[in-house]
Design goal:
With about 325 residues, the chain is an alpha/beta fold. It contains eleven helices and 13 strands. Helix 2 crosses helix 3 and helix 3 runs parallel beside helix 4. The longest helix has 18 residues. The protein starts with 11 loop residues before the first strand and ends in a 15-residue tail after the last helix.
Length: about 325
């Protein structure tokens, strides 16, 4: 899979956000292909688990802060390629959407261009739009602009909701199903009983797309949206989780405009399970546009939710019913 650089040694790929959900899957695939990986993280000690994904010395961890030019420059120095997989689900302290999604990724792109990096892949998000209702989506769009200004040939991926064993999406719904007698349907109006539509994509497919692009010149400079094979409403996703966890729960519509009041208080917690900005993002559908699914363009068959999600949601079933057919 992997090509060497000009010196004949295995190529070096610097990954920003390697300890994150998508990043760790990318690193595992790069290491399996014989690539040397440099993981740029704020706290190298927290990323030591990544070293077990490769041979001795294959995966290197370096300290880098997205707000610091010098540390970012050191992280990309000598790299053949760079992958940016950083993002926030909610803001806290100095970690704001603007600081990470825009200023941070722009700093990496400029450093990569100055260092003569051959290829840059950036992970944005489906729904990125400078006119979006949510700050998350607006700053993701602004980050894409910053990337293009500094590194015009970058390939940008916009994945939808990403699922996999370590995700924060289906696992959160599974935990809620195991604890709460009701499940919320976030309604956009008084007459909305389905909620927004989503197109969840498997983390393994996203990682494969990234690695494939690093080994090819087919989509240099393009922006590709990544989605799974199914478009499902929020209600459909909740029902899917209830089936997978073998739970019977009451589905209750929560009007988004009113739920934002409740989310305001949740935002006071160190790690809120719901924010007003997330609710704003659920006021619109999160599906691949008419431009088409980038996975199919790359020749990757999207993995259905049914093939992966029930396996790791089994942990949320009632004890004694992990393999049964009964529902409580």
């Amino acid at each position: 899979m992997t090509q060497g650089n000009r010196t004949g040694t295995p190529k070096l790929v610097t990954v920003f956000g390697g300890t994150g959900f998508i990043g760790r899957h990318v690193i595992r695939r790069l290491a399996a292909g014989g690539v040397r990986v440099r993981v740029a993280v704020r706290d190298p000690e927290a990323g030591m688990f990544l070293k077990t994904m490769g041979d001795v010395g294959q995966i290197e961890l370096v300290q880098a802060n997205l707000r610091d030019d010098a540390s970012v420059a050191r992280a990309v120095a000598g790299a053949d390629q760079v992958v940016i997989s950083v993002g926030l689900l909610f803001e806290g302290g100095r970690q704001t959407f603007e600081a990470v999604h825009v200023d941070g990724v722009g700093r990496v792109a400029r450093a990569a261009a100055d260092a003569g990096v051959g290829k840059l892949v950036h992970i944005s998000a489906l729904g990125a739009d400078e006119k979006a209702r949510s700050a998350y989506s607006r700053t993701k769009a602004a980050g894409e602009t910053a990337i293009r200004e500094a590194f015009p040939g970058a390939t940008i991926f916009r994945p939808g909701v990403v699922f996999g064993p370590e995700d924060n999406f289906f696992n959160q719904l599974g935990a809620m199903a195991s604890l709460s007698p009701v499940m919320p349907i976030f309604a956009r109006s008084m007459f909305d009983f389905e909620g927004a539509k989503f197109q969840p994509v498997f983390v393994g497919d996203v990682a494969n797309a990234i690695v494939q692009v690093l080994d090819s010149d087919d989509v240099v400079g393009e922006t590709l949206e990544l989605g799974g094979p199914e478009v499902v409403s929020w209600r459909g996703l909740v029902e899917f989780v209830l089936q997978a966890t073998m739970r019977n729960r009451l589905l209750v519509p929560f009007l988004i405009s009113l739920t934002k009041v409740f989310a305001f208080f949740l935002e006071l917690l160190p790690s809120p399970m719901l924010t007003r900005d997330q609710l704003r993002s659920m006021e619109v559908d999160n599906v691949v546009s008419e431009a088409g699914n980038g996975l199919e363009k790359l020749g990757i068959t999207p993995t259905p939710m049914e093939a992966v999600v029930p396996g790791y949601l089994a942990r949320y079933r009632r004890p004694g019913r992990r393999h049964g057919l009964q529902h409580e």
